Amino acid sequence: MKKKMISRLMATAVMAAVTLGTLAGCGSAQAKDKGKRTVVFQTADSYAPTAYLDDEGNPAGYEVEVIKAVAELLPQYDFVIEAVPNDSLDNNLLSGKADVLGFKMTKDVSETENFTAGKEQYDTIVERIFILAENEDLYHDISDFAGKTVYAFPSEKAKKSHILNIYNEEHPDNQVNIEYISDPATCVNDLVTGKTDGFTRSQPSVISYSERFGVKLTTAKIGATHIDGIFYKYRKDEDPQLIADIDGALKTLKENGTINEIHERLFYGTDWDFEGDITEWVAEHPEYLKESEY
């Protein structure tokens, strides 16, 4: 039986930060004297169990535990961890308020004019279709969504390899109506009012969305709809040595089982280690999606 994790979300939107004291020595002044660079890592503040503020207002979740483990392997840096509203992450990185972002960042959304992605994958997005819990018995196969509307997250890569698109290509006369909408509040509100019949998000979000919007959600039991790798995000002009050092730490944490342990404990599975160009592979093997288990 899969474990269930209930995480209470903070109502505040105030930024919270935690400095790794064991790595910071006796404070920022001493760190500066030793020539240690302060690296500000930011993640989201309201998406338990991935990234959120705990009951005391401190950053918590998968993203926080992974970067803490990274920091322990890189004593040459002084890491500061902050949890902020998701919609402020890119602006903070671009303006220099943050040096590294970690929150569901795929390569296709990170490799842009201003940003770049690290090379080492440390998590995997496994998307499913969210539905109202009361409608759980209505959906047992992708074909059950034919003639209905599903909101999909507007990633260019996902548009090419999403299982819903594959289904539509194979069933031109009985298609799923796909609309690309990212705003969570719109997705949930339209689901409740009947404007859409489902929307795609990564599996762990079913917990935070249910609590955040006060609606009982579940996932349609039809397997994953899209899979993609997760990487850290940096400014284009970031020091290549910092990126290489963090990539090296992530590789070590995967090899020694640390990331696997964190993922197992928080997400009830070990989907993080899908390597390579995942979405192209999935597009060529759609049968995997129907049978896959998160």
- From the N-terminal CA to the C-terminal CA, the straight-line distance is 12 Å
In total, how many beta strands?
A: 15
Shape: elongated
CATH topology of the largest domain: D-Maltodextrin-Binding Protein, domain 2
Instruction: Please identify which CATH superfamily of the largest domain we are dealing with.
Output: Periplasmic binding protein-like II
Number of domains: 2
User: Percent range for helical residues?
Assistant: 25-40%
What does the model show?
This protein is α/β, with parallel strands linked by helices and 294 residues long. It folds into 2 domains: 16-124 and 232-275, Periplasmic binding protein-like II (D-Maltodextrin-Binding Protein, domain 2, 3-Layer(aba) Sandwich), CATH 3.40.190; 125-227 and 279-291, D-Maltodextrin-Binding Protein, domain 2 (3-Layer(aba) Sandwich), CATH 3.40.190.10. The chain is 36% helix and 22% strand. It is built from 13 helices and 15 strands. The strands form 4 sheets. Strands 9, 10, 11, 12, 13 and 14 form a 6-stranded mixed sheet that branches. Strand 3 (46-47) and strand 4 (51-53) form a beta hairpin. Helix 3 packs across helix 10 (240-255) and helix 3 (62-73) packs antiparallel against helix 11 (258-267). The radius of gyration is 20 Å and the shape is elongated. The two termini are 12 Å apart.
